[in-house]
Amino acid sequence: MFTNTLIGAVAVAAVNVAAQGTSATTPAVPTGTPIPGDYTGPLRPQVHFSPPQGFMNDPNGMFKDANGTWHMYYQYNPTGIVAGNQHWGHATSEDLYHWENQAIALYPPEEGQYVFSGSAVIDVNNTSGFFPDQDNGVVAITTIAHGGSGPQTQDIAYSRDGGYTFEWYANNPVIDSTSSQFRDPKVIWYEDHWVAVIAYSQEFVVGIFTSPDLKSWTWASNFTRHGLLGTQYECPNLVKMPVRDRDSGDLLEETYVLALSVQPGAPLGGSITEYFVGDFNGTHFAPSDATTRLTDFAKDNYAAQYFYGTAEGENPVNLGWASNWQYAQQVPTGNSEGWRSAMTLPRANYLTYAPRIGLTMVNEIYDMSPVLEDGDALAEQTMGNGSVVVDYSDVASGAVFVDVTVTGINTTLVSSFTTLNLTLSAPASGEALQSGFYFGGDTPFFVNRGLLRGFDNIFFTDKFSIADVYSSDSSALASWSMQAVVDRSIFEVFVDRGTHAGTVLFYPTQPLSQLTVASRDLPEGAQVSVSVRALKSAWAEYEDESGVVAGNVTETIAKRHMAYEAAF
Ligand SMILES: *[C@@H]1O[C@H](CO)[C@@H](O)[C@H](O)[C@H]1NC(C)=O
Ligand SMILES: *[C@@H]1O[C@H](CO)[C@@H](O)[C@H](O)[C@H]1NC(C)=O
Ligand SMILES: *[C@@H]1O[C@H](CO)[C@@H](O)[C@H](O)[C@H]1NC(C)=O
Ligand SMILES: *[C@@H]1O[C@H](CO)[C@@H](O)[C@H](O)[C@H]1NC(C)=O
Ligand SMILES: *[C@@H]1O[C@H](CO)[C@@H](O)[C@H](O)[C@H]1NC(C)=O
Ligand SMILES: *[C@@H]1O[C@H](CO)[C@@H](O)[C@H](O)[C@H]1NC(C)=O
Ligand SMILES: *[C@@H]1O[C@H](CO)[C@@H](O)[C@H](O)[C@H]1NC(C)=O
Ligand SMILES: *[C@@H]1O[C@H](CO)[C@@H](O)[C@H](O)[C@H]1NC(C)=O
Ligand SMILES: *[C@@H]1O[C@H](CO)[C@@H](O)[C@H](O)[C@H]1NC(C)=O
Known about the structure:
Layout lengths: L2 H15 L19 E2 L15 E11 L5 E8 L9 E7 L5 E8 L6 E10 L15 E9 L5 E8 L7 E2 L13 E9 L2 E8 L4 E7 L6 E7 L8 E12 L6 E12 L9 E9 L4 E3 L5 E2 L7 E5 L10 E5 L11 H5 L1 E2 L6 E8 L3 E8 L13 E5 L2 E6 L7 E11 L9 E8 L4 E8 L5 E8 L11 E5 L10 E10 L2 E6 L4 E6 L8 E7 L6 E8 L13 E2 L4 H14 L1
Parallel strand pairs: 2-21
Antiparallel strand pairs: 1-36, 2-3, 3-4, 4-5, 6-7, 7-8, 8-9, 10-11, 11-12, 12-13, 14-15, 15-16, 16-17, 16-18, 19-20, 20-22, 22-23, 24-35, 25-34, 26-31, 26-35, 27-28, 27-34, 28-29, 29-30, 31-32, 32-33
């Protein structure tokens, strides 16, 4: 959560909603029932999560419960389309693509306070003592901002109904502070105690704290001034991650990753997430080298959070906020469709040894089968030099998945003209989103969103690239791959088996509906396999006749009904 942005935004939001009020204690913010949403707008992603209405930023409190249900909370302004009036919105999913909107889960404990970013855990052993007769109690730990410039403290809330409703702990804060820049606790379980990483944002420190019971916390160590500083540290995540063989996927070892979001002041402008690989011994994180690594080569992936509660040994899963504070509050969806910001696709991560570079985090798109359209692919083709053109204007969701693999590459025979491009276009307006790979020389992958005309902002920079060493062994034929999802206004691309990820927002004036994969000057013997699949809208299934997604109202209605019956 970026405080300076928030303070400015609170003022704006207050003007917009003055008549309705801005505090959770006022009727403007509904309690006990989800906010309805219209997910039919031409810019509304169909396989990504976005809030029903209003402004969303960081993912918060994410956990997977014992029944396999994924819970996601998020920084939410339910009364405006810019940041401000922060609450925790809530949605649940069985597959990370179909999301059931739930009632807002955390409201400010008092007027003039804001619920900033934080995390949640399942207190399976009742370490907190909040859960007399259950093993599925949920404890959220979050930053409370006391006004725009008052202190930021760490407070907890507990849920006895599996994460749907919470009560604030009576003896908050659990970590007091006089600092106005101390936030975003992320809690994990380590062997026999809880561990929280929290950002002292403007001192460039990640504080590591330990606790036996989630209530009493002890400072354990500081991780100070590592990597890119930007102008603030935010949203630290400490996560145990497998190291896998690049080809076989076999588990080699497990290690820790400390991910840290930096903002503003990223190399490309605004917001970015960096990560460090190292050892964690329960109190101290020691990076294994001096390298700063980035999770994304474009501009629209910030504040990602890992789910608590995924199985030991499984690749950890994260969702990020697919935006950038440089323009998050200006993007056109706010005025035209009444919502702003989506989450990234769910990603499973592991580390591997990439050629020449060494330890690198790989991004795999979490199993997309729940949203893959049944039946034939839109295209399934192999070629050498050539092109595949697909008109997908008939795909109702406007969302497609593209999978390209190039095999049999003799790397000594590639030239500076050896390229493979993926272009998505809107023939009616001539707009296009371009991407492609140069197999020779410095081998960069590029994305260009500069040929789209739906959003003009000086910070909405349009060209991104990343160098990819896809092979360092010229004695063997090499292969290279890319996977991409295009979803109305979000493009996510995973280059070279997920070694690089690019998350790119784009705003066309006409829907993109044509896709071209083209290759040229490939060495003799190289073969390109192209598969293009239509994606099903995850939201359309929840729409009523008028196109509205109501969310999980059934329980509320049932409860009201019971209350009504009890009254008579
Ligand atoms: C799992 O589902 C069962 C049956 O619906 C329910 O009783 C239980 O509370 C759920 N467990 C969790 C962890 O939510
Ligand atoms: C719960 O208790 C078991 C048995 O003592 C222990 O192995 C496990 O680490 C504990 N987990 C949590 C999250 O408290
Ligand atoms: C949970 O902790 C509370 C407080 O210590 C205690 O009263 C309760 O019996 C505990 N429940 C279980 C199942 O351990
Ligand atoms: C840890 O960092 C915080 C924030 O800069 C600072 O206030 C505190 O004194 C540090 N603790 C130690 C022991 O250095
Ligand atoms: C963890 O590492 C720190 C720093 O090296 C060290 O002081 C501490 O004793 C270690 N703790 C354990 C349990 O090994
Ligand atoms: C690549 O091409 C060169 C030149 O034709 C040849 O000498 C070499 O054996 C080829 N490499 C592989 C791995 O096939
Ligand atoms: C891919 O795009 C680049 C940059 O516009 C261009 O130079 C190259 O010729 C294109 N390659 C193909 C196969 O279209
Ligand atoms: C691609 O075209 C070049 C000539 O431009 C040719 O040398 C090469 O063999 C072709 N590659 C394939 C895979 O057909
Ligand atoms: C709806 O919310 C209730 C809690 O109010 C929860 O028990 C139930 O599982 C939810 N149903 C769905 C489909 O999310």
